[in-house]
Amino acid sequence: MRILHTSDWHLGRSFHRVGMLGAQAEFIGHLVATVREHAVDAVVVSGDVYDRAVPPLAAVELFDDALHRLAGLGVPTVMISGNHDSARRLGVGAGLIGRAGIHLRTDPSASGTPVMLSDRHGDVAFYGLPYLEPALVKDELGVQKAGHEAVLAAAMDRVRADLAARPRGTRSVVLAHAFVTGGTPSDSERDITVGGVAAVPAGVFDGVDYVALGHLHGCQTLTERVRYSGSPLPYSFSEADHRKSMWLVDLDAGGGVTAERIDCPVPRALARIRGPLEELLADPGLEPHREAWVEATLTDPVRPADPMARLTERFPHTLSLVFAPERVPGDPAVSYAHRLAGRDDQQIAEDFVAHVRGAGPDERERAVLRDAIDAVRADQTAHEVAR
User: Fold this and answer.
1) Please, are residues 283 and 271 in contact by the beta-carbon 8 Å criterion?
2) CA 151 to CA 159: how far, in whole Å?
3) pLDDT for 183-235, tens place per residue?
């Protein structure tokens, strides 16, 4: 069976101040053309179809167009909700839409109920595990303590139990939206840390033939059977080195996997340039970036006059301007943002405690801080779901 694996469309999202809806529509057209050209048997979309719980109307219209075009191909499609989606909204009408061959899986309680598809070698069971927010699904999945590994393990137990009851030789595909250990994040994914932990081990998914992951925006192979497709378009300058693509996966009669990357069209290249303003304006080596979307980091010790206007004369698509004066270590003028770079909420909170009272928190206090941060995240997620 030939499967096209994609994820993280983020319909409705912009790139800095540039609207991406046109590029997203071009990607949908590319997806449909790829299905035709490569004789795809099934399409899987591993979450974050939309960029937010209540997407703009234009994004909803584009999704509607994508559904009609995919249904018109007569090729089954399986989709799950991600942490950016409202599972309830995305799943509205799932029963009816399923009759057209578009299978929306947004209910955690149905994790062990597959979409059954067949090829000449027999059945393939597609299990959709929507994004599982631990605090919201732990009771449904019978988990005592909320955590990403615990809820995913419980959902996979349901998958393995269902698969074990099926005829020998039934092949299996799992769609999941999670941060799996070994994956490399970018700046454009929303933090899903719970209890100080964001990642889950790939071993959670043992026992199935292929795991189609979503959430991380870079295309990645964790094992031959566990892969991220990445987002089809860039959504932050940290993705400047990404090759945007989808996985074309062939599942053979015995469940063996081979995969090929299919490149996606991107509207412009991304470029990150760094140095004093005058050097950036004069360096001939930067000429290939003239038509790229540019993030410029200026290292001048004193902020130059009209830097954006001057940069856009040479790089008309400059979208981001960062000031990072090169200073000697210990200089008190080093920015607060620079001191916080790469630190998570827990570390920042612990540093604040240490700054205020002269000593960092003990284990009990760390646990209190962790619980408070997790509660805020869970409340934000529940609020978005309820909107």
Assistant:
1) no
2) 13
3) 999 988 888 876 666 789 999 999 999 999 999 999 999 999 999 999 999 99
| Helix H or strand E encompassing 160 | helix 148-164
pLDDT of residue 337: 56
Residue 106 near residue 80 (C-beta atoms within 8 A): yes
* Tokens encoding 37: 């050209």
Q: Residue for token digits 């698969």?
A: 163
Strands (E), 81-135: 102-105, 115-119, 122-129
Structural contact between residues 184 and 219, judged by C-beta atoms closer than 8 angstroms? no
The residues, any chain, with a CB within 8 Å of residue 44's CB and separated by 6 or more, are: 3, 4, 5, 6, 77, 78, 79, 126, 173, 175, 212
Instruction: Give the residue among 286, 329, 333, 330 at the shortest CA–CA distance from 311.
Output: 286
Structure tokens, 139:
């009771």
Query: Are the CB atoms for 272 and 240 separated by under 8 Å?
Result: yes
d(CA 365, CA 353): 10
Tens digit of each residue's pLDDT (9 = 90 or more) over 138-159: 999 999 988 999 999 999 999 9
Whose structure tokens read 């299996």?
Answer: 172
For residue 31, which of 245, 267, 251 has the smallest C-alpha distance?
245
Q: What is the mean pLDDT of the chain?
A: 92
Q: Does residue 293 register a pLDDT over 70?
A: yes
- pTM for the model stands at 0.86
- Classified as helix, coil or strand, 111 is coil
